[in-house]
Request: fold
Amino acid sequence: MSDASRVVVITGGSKGIGRAVALRFAVEKPRIIIVHFDPDESAVRETLRSLSGLGVEAEGHKVDVSSHAEVEAFFKEVLSRLGRVDVLVNNAGIVKDTFFMRMSEEEWDTVLRVNLKSVFNCTQSVIRSMIKQRSGRVVNISSVVGQIGNPGQANYAASKAGIMGLSKTVAKEVAGRGITVNVIAPGFIKTDMTANLPEKVKELFLQQIPMGRMGNPEDVAETVYWLCSEGAGYITGQVIHVSGGLYM
Ligand SMILES: NC(=O)c1ccc[n+]([C@@H]2O[C@H](COP(=O)([O-])OP(=O)(O)OC[C@H]3O[C@@H](n4cnc5c(N)ncnc54)[C@H](O)[C@@H]3O)[C@@H](O)[C@H]2O)c1
Reply:
């Protein structure tokens, strides 16, 4: 399988980390499929424009990854049209932060559905075809918070810890079929998700990062790309932290 004929699906690829992942893959000119759920199309259009400028055939789709039915129908169409998915990057995610004492059932359920159930939905929709082709790469974007916790993020931390358990289990189940499943746990990365944090919270985070700075989306993208390279073919079920040393 030459790199240029790979089909790469990136959820949450309209902006932030997902966009950087798409642009990193552009060097090999694969077919790139961006999934997003933004209220408007401006971010995904910008990503598609950049990819097209780099000579990549890319498409964008608004799909709610938390909906099992929507995801199943989406991948069914992709697989019948393109015949394969080689790389799945489960990157879509949201926060709904509040202290545990005040967390509503809706805040809990929504974050678990978008961040964790989505990984079940998307991975299950492609895994059968990866098993058939006896190859595939799944990279799931978790968070350092899934391992160390963070006040105000019980729902988010639980969803991100759940991704680790799910990934290790699926990794064991499909390892014999040439498929790797790995997790990246980013630390504190400059995107829309962190843009509106109060300065005091940002300062507290920065004090805990040995490298003394926030990460860039490209720092995460590089690791995703490497995990999907041929050279990383013997690595599966791992959680790789990209956090400037925040967790070690
Ligand atoms: N930014 C950070 O500091 C940081 C740290 C650790 C982990 N992460 C994780 O990295 C991933 C990307 O984060 P980001 O900072 O780039 O976020 P972002 O807010 O910039 O982008 C989020 C993306 O997810 C998509 N999305 C949200 N809900 C969706 C849904 N229901 N269906 C489909 N797509 C949906 C959005 O459309 C967008 O494309 C997330 O899983 C996040 O939890 C981010």
